[in-house]
């Protein structure tokens, strides 16, 4: 299954968060990401959807 891969700036824009916050979410394992090649980090759109869904469930 192929999903859309977002760059770090695109993911930051979608979530409306800073680069620092995004990388903290990735480091903590709350937001999944992959590394393409040597240095290109990408965030699957499905990972963002999963993260937002978890936040909504925790808030309910």
Features of this protein?
60 residues; 3 strands; alpha+beta; Helix-turn-helix domain-containing protein; three-stranded antiparallel β-sheet; globular
**Helix share, percent:** 55-70%
Task: Describe the global form.
Answer: globular
Largest sheet: 3 strands, antiparallel
**Strand tally:** 3
Number of domains: 1
- SS-based class: alpha+beta
Mean pLDDT across all amino acids:
94
* Oligomeric organization of the protein chains: single chain
Structure description:
The protein has 60 residues and is α+β, with helices and mostly antiparallel strands. It is built from three helices and three strands. Strands 1-3-2 form a three-stranded antiparallel β-sheet. The longest helix is centred in the last third of the chain and has 15 residues, at 45-59. The termini are far apart. The model has no long low-confidence stretch (mean pLDDT 94).
Write the layout of secondary structure elements.
Layout: E1 5-6, H1 8-15, H2 19-28, E2 34-36, E3 40-44, H3 45-59
Antiparallel strand pairs: 1-3, 2-3
Task: Give a short overview.
With 60 residues, the chain is an alpha+beta fold. The chain has helices at residues 8-15, 19-28, 45-59, and strands at 5-6, 34-36, 40-44.
